[in-house]
Amino acid sequence: MSHRFVICALGAFLGAPVSAMAQSDPLFHCHFPNGKEVTINVQAEGVSYAFGPPHAAPELQLERPYADVGVLPWNGVGRSIWEEIRIPNGDVTYAVWGSFDRMTEAHEVSGGIVVERGGEELARLDCAPSGVIYAPFSFSDVYEEAGYCWSFETERWQEACE
Q: Which of 12, 37, 136, 158 is in the most buried spot, having the most CB atoms within 10 Å?
């Protein structure tokens, strides 16, 4: 089943119109209790990641092609629909996650960043509860639109879709 079908059904369930993500809209955005924010935008050949104070030059800005970015899609289990997008920077990875609680009437959205080096967690930032812009399945949808497809056999994204 396509993620687009599921998100359209989810949008119909919530009474919200669902349309393709415009490139000018952030794929993910949130602000943190420490006053900083993170934004992931879609570009023609990949994604950009910006972290730092609002209305100022980012402390860290990365642009990565789709081939270098990892997306972990929701496995279909649990009360929340979630995804993770992993953006490398040398030996450090910024794992940005978004989550949508499907079991409450409010359908809370949450998110954050886990900074890792060699599988070891260096830092974790959780987004302020009211400050998350994330649509369920948007990471996977962007990856699919870039020509990748999820293989249930290998549990990995692949470029050659059949």
A: 136
Bridge partners of residue 28, in order along the sequence: 40
DSSP 128: P
User: Distances in Å between the alpha carbon of 44 and those of 13, 24, 37, 63, 134?
Assistant: 31, 11, 23, 11, 20
> Of the ranges 15-29, 35-49, 109-123, 133-147, which one carries the lowest mean pLDDT score?
15-29
pLDDT of residue 78: 86
Query: Helices in 15-92 by DSSP H: which ranges?
Result: none
- Reference 98, options 60, 128, 136; nearest CA is 136
Taking the model in full, what pTM does it have?
A: 0.81
Residues 75, 133: Cα–Cα separation, whole Å: 21
**142 class by beta-carbon count within 10 Å (0-12 exposed, 13-18 middle, 19+ buried):** buried
Nearest of 111, 83, 113, 117 to residue 95 by alpha carbon: 113
Rounded-to-integer distance, Cα 73 and Cα 91, Å = 23
**SS3 (DSSP) at 69:** coil
